[in-house]
Write a structure and sequence with these properties.
Double Stranded RNA Binding Domain, about 220 residues, single chain, 3 strands, Ribonuclease iii, N-terminal Endonuclease Domain, Chain A, about 60% helix, mainly alpha
């Protein structure tokens, strides 16, 4: 019943139910987890959103298109969309993750959403996956303001520090966990006497999360 409700919200019905189950399985739950599907979905999202923005905004430069895409597919935006699709109660977590929080962490929700789109791609092909992505992002695409393209956290942090004539951020790899095909990165962002950490399933995502954390710390000063 829960899976059928999700398929209704997604606008796509799976022929292979095991793909949907895998997409919603975090690595802490077991070996048949969603990280390979997340890798696929991440690439799919980038392609579909880039294509749609290129079509919608023929007047925009590459830089503005890049910032618009980043605002749509950044981890916290994907986590928010995952909550709207009511993914949180369906994500299968291991005991450690369940004990840590009543709801999956935002990074887990973001990864599960990407994995879900990756599963649609494998199950129904690119046209079906493209339709599912565009349906899920429809409201966000409609309310985009191309003249106020959101900046990703790393860009925003660098510009904020430059404007304040403060030391520019330096990103340091703290740790890498997991096997080569399912690594988890932790990054520390340092800017003078201030620092913050972030983590993610890629070094780039971990750096963005570290930059976001440092921005929040600076905003509270």
């Amino acid at each position: 019943m829960a899976a059928a409700a999700l398929e209704s919200r997604l606008g796509y019905r799976f022929a292979r139910a095991e793909l949907l189950e895998q997409a919603l399985t975090h690595r802490s739950h077991g070996a048949a987890h969603n990280e390979r599907l997340e890798f696929l979905g991440d690439s799919l999202l980038g392609c579909v959103i880039a294509e749609e923005l290129y079509r919608r905004f023929p007047q925009l430069s590459e830089g503005k298109l890049t910032r618009l895409r980043a605002s749509l597919v950044r981890a916290d935006a994907l986590a928010e969309l995952a909550r709207e699709l009511e993914l949180a109660p369906l994500v299968r977590l291991g005991e450690g993750e369940l004990a840590a929080s009543a709801e999956p962490r935002p990074s887990i929700l973001a990864d599960a959403l990407e994995a879900l789109f990756g599963a649609v791609l494998l199950d129904g092909g690119y046209p079906a996956a493209r339709d599912a992505v565009l349906a899920a992002f429809a409201t966000r695409l409609e309310r985009l303001d191309p003249e106020r393209a959101a900046k990703d956290p790393k860009t925003e942090l660098q510009e904020k520090l430059q404007a304040a004539r403060r030391p520019l951020p330096v990103y340091r790899l703290v740790s890498v966990q997991g096997a080569a095909h399912r690594q988890w990165f932790e990054i520390e962002c340092n800017a003078g006497e201030e620092s913050a950490r972030g983590s993610g399933s890629s070094r780039q995502r971990a750096e963005q999360e570290a930059a976001r954390a440092l921005l929040e710390r600076l905003a509270g000063q």
